[in-house]
Amino acid sequence: MVPAIAGDPAGRRARCIGTVYAIAPGTGRMHLADATWTDLDEADVDVALLPVGSTEQHGPHAPLGTDYLTAAAIADSAAEAAKHEVVVAPAVPIGVAEEHRQFTGTMWVTPDTFRAYVREAVESLLGHGWDRVVLVNGHGGNVPAIEEVAARLTRDHDALVAPFTWFEAVDVDLPMGHAGAVETSILLASYPELVHEERFAAAADDGADRWGDWVGSVDLAQDSAAFTDNGAVGDPGEASADVGDTLEEQAREALVSLLDAVLDRSTTTPAHK
Ligand SMILES: [Zn+2]
Predict the structure, then answer these.
(1) Can you tell me which residues the record assigns to a coiled coil (predicted)?
(2) Are 178 and 58 in contact (CB under 8 A)?
C-alpha cells in the first residue's frame, strides 16, 4: 500500500505503484481489491467498472503495461468524478495482442480465451447483484471482443454491460499511432515515472509513421514487426503531460456520461413484438 500524495488529486503518482485507496463509503468510489467483502456487501453499488487492457510492447520508451495502466487510470478517474457509487474491479492485464508477439515481453491470449475470461469475470460481478457493468478498455485489439462480450451478457442476463474504449472517446489533433503522441501523453500525465523521454527521438526514427502495410484498402501485415523496427508508430516527441491531462479529462467526462446513461436504461431486454 502506498499513501496518496497530497496535492495530487488524481492520486496519479502513487497509482503507478499500486492502488491507493481502500473502500471509501459515501464518496462514490471503491476499489474492489482494496475493500473487504463486508464493506462491499454494505455498499450500495450502482455500477461496476472492469478495466481491460494488454501487456505488449510500446516501443523503446513506454511500458509494456501501457494499455491496462491507462484503462485503470481512466476507470479510477471516472469513478472518482461520478455522482454514483462505483466499484472498480482489478484490471485484466492480458488481452488480444498476438500482433506484437515478436517483441520481448509481449503477452497475449486468443480472442476465444479473452472473451471467455472477461465474460466469466463480469458474470461474477453480476452474481453480487451488480447488474450494470462497463468494460473500460485501453487496447485496440480488444475492441471486437469486448463488444461481443457486452452484447452476449446483456442479452443473456437481466443486466446492462457496455464496452468503452477510452481513445475512441477523445478528440485531440494528434494521430493515435501506437505508443505515439496520444498514448505517450496520457502516460506522461498518469505514470510519468514509467516513460523514458530521452528515447523519444530514437522511437520516432526507428518506428513507423502509420500502422500497417496497406495496399489500397487491404492491410497485408499481420504483425506489427512487419512495419516497425522498434514497435512505435508515430512520434512520442509530440507528447506532453498537458495533452495527457486533456485526454484524461475528455475520457473521464465521456465515461461519466456513459455511466449516467447506463444507470438510466433498463436492464431488461425488449419484449417480443
Ligand atoms: Zn497501447
Answers:
(1) none
(2) yes
